[in-house]
């Protein structure tokens, strides 16, 4: 009824709209079928070309770094053996000296006067001894001629012996005072480098005053304080390495002494190792990085460039074979120290694994890969 009421023009427009709607639906369905067909026939994405290296095992040192202090094994603390005023200082700090080189002069005037007095007294005693010898020879001659008694001869002999004893005693005193006079000039006991000189000309010093030090830098010793938790593994013969600022090894040595006691202040155990320093690159009292080598073991390594870090966790991509093709799989790692250009791997990699070392920024877990030729 309602359609019969439509005019011919309205009916024509309605038929035209239905036809347009049908054609759109049919076209859309055909398009969907065509797209589905095209996707189903498309090839899989090509494998990404990457550089792959086999994980290898190397000998790795198990070591721990500590701060060590270098001390001279031939360090002499110079202290005077006499009291007095310093009149001259012959050397400067840092100067290299040989044994016997004069370092300082302590005023010798008083001691020189004492020695002069003793020498004068010695001369007098020598004269007295000469006179006693003459008297003895005279009395002995008279005694032989029966002119003097045996008592006179004994008295002359006794006077000669006393004069000889007094001269010998005075000779010892003069020698002692002369030795004391030599102590007024302080000399280097060994070859080495002069340390700090805290005294100045005009200072009065005693036998307990430190004048300076003389150190031989070619013969040093490293003092390493190891925490007591590691003390059970400390023993003479363990390797010790002195490192530079970049971590390169400067000197290799071995621990020669381990203290039997624990420091009550630091709860550490002292270990010492001789450090050769013929080139003079190291200095006495210098703080250095020292690495105690506890042992050596075999371990896998991976290149540093192959390792990525995400949220504090380290990862590496490993090329694994799946269904006849290689795909990249991401593995978490537990890393050790750096050995050259590689990381030591404690967990996550085994020998022979194919580690992806290039193009890792374009990879995701499960992406097909192919090794570069």
Overview features:
alpha+beta, OB fold (Dihydrolipoamide Acetyltransferase, E2P), 3 domains, eleven-stranded antiparallel β-sheet, four-stranded antiparallel β-sheet, 3 helices, rod-shaped
How large is the share of residues in beta strands?
35-45%
Average pLDDT taken over every residue: 84
Termini separation = 81 Å
How many strand segments? 23
Task: Describe the secondary-structure layout.
Elements: H1 8-41, E1 48-50, E2 52-54, E3 56-72, E4 75-78, E5 84-89, E6 96-97, E7 102-106, H2 109-144, H3 150-182, E8 185-187, E9 192-194, E10 204-205, E11 212-215, E12 219-227, E13 239-243, E14 249-254, E15 257-262, E16 268-276, E17 287-303, E18 308-310, E19 313-322, E20 325-339, E21 342-347, E22 354-356, E23 369-371
Parallel strand pairs: 1-23
Antiparallel strand pairs: 2-22, 3-12, 3-17, 4-11, 5-7, 5-10, 6-9, 7-8, 9-11, 12-16, 13-14, 13-17, 15-16, 17-21, 18-19, 19-20, 20-21
Helix pairs in contact: 2-3
Give a brief rundown of this model.
The chain is an alpha+beta fold and 373 residues long.
């Amino acid at each position: 009824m309602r359609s019969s009421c439509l005019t011919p023009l309205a009916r024509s427009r309605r038929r035209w709209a239905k036809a347009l709607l049908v054609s759109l639906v049919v076209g859309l369905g055909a398009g969907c079928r065509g797209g589905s067909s095209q996707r189903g026939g498309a090839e899989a994405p090509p494998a990404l070309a990457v550089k792959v290296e086999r994980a290898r095992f190397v000998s790795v040192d198990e070591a721990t770094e500590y701060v060590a202090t270098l001390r001279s094994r031939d360090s002499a603390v110079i202290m005077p053996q006499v009291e007095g005023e310093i009149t001259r200082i012959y050397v400067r700090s840092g100067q290299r000296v040989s044994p016997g080189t004069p370092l300082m002069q302590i005023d010798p005037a008083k001691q020189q006067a004492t020695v002069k007095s003793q020498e004068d007294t010695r001369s007098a005693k020598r004269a007295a001894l000469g006179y006693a010898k003459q008297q003895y020879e005279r009395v002995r001659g008279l005694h032989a001629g029966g002119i003097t008694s045996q008592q006179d001869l004994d008295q002359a002999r006794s006077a000669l012996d006393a004069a000889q004893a007094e001269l010998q005693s005075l000779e010892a005193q003069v020698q002692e005072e002369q030795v004391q006079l030599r102590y007024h000039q302080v000399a280097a006991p060994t070859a080495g480098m002069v340390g700090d000189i805290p005294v100045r000309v005009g200072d009065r010093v005693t036998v307990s005053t430190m004048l300076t030090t003389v150190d031989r830098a070619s013969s040093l010793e490293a003092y390493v304080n190891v925490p007591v938790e590691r003390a059970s593994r400390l023993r003479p013969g363990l390797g010790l390495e002195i490192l530079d600022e970049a971590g390169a090894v400067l000197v290799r040595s071995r621990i020669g002494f381990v203290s039997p006691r624990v420091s009550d202040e630091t709860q550490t155990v002292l270990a010492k190792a001789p450090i050769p320093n013929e080139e003079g690159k190291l200095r006495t009292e210098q703080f250095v990085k020292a690495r105690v080598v506890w042992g050596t073991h075999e371990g896998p390594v991976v290149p540093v460039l192959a390792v990525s870090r995400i949220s504090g966790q380290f990862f590496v991509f490993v090329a694994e074979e799946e269904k006849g093709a290689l795909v990249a799989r991401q593995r978490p790692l537990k890393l050790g120290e750096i050995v050259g250009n590689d990381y030591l791997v404690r967990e996550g990699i085994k020998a022979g694994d194919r580690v992806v070392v290039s193009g890792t920024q374009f990879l995701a877990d499960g992406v097909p890969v192919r090794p570069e030729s």
